[in-house]
Design goal:
174 residues; 6 helices; 8 strands; 19% strand
Amino acid sequence: KEIIERLKIRPDKIEVIPNAINIDKINKVGPSSEKSDIIFAGRLISHKNVDLLINSINILRKTSPKIKCIILGDGPEAQNLKNQVKSSGLEKNIIFKGFIKDENTMYALMKSSKVFAFPSEREGFGIAPLEANACGIPIVTIDAKDNASKFLIKQGKNGLITKGKDENSFSISL
């Protein structure tokens, strides 16, 4: 879409070769015994907007005090996000698992979750949302200009695209 709009290249001159995931491998993995309502997987960097997810959990906790969110990943924002969780009193609701080396562990955790949250405002494609859908869970992402993962979503079918500017518009349905 950007090549067509920004560079004015004719669509018939473009061939898209999609990224792939290993469906057979994902299908062989069973769900984890550790359940969660919401899961995020990705690098903990500012444009992934994990702080927005944490703020959303804080709002959801008012009506669902036992809500549980798992955050998979590591990165330069990890400590800031952990501090945000602590200052919001969400230590019982949000668990940081760090970087998961074993894909099967990640797939198992996804399969034992209800929703995959992906509030990234800049994403070239989004393998993690593709993997989440393959694990059978819907995705909630944001309608940001540079978030290409939103093009993977069929609204109301395999996920939701939200306005996502703040925690009130990044809605997550459990």
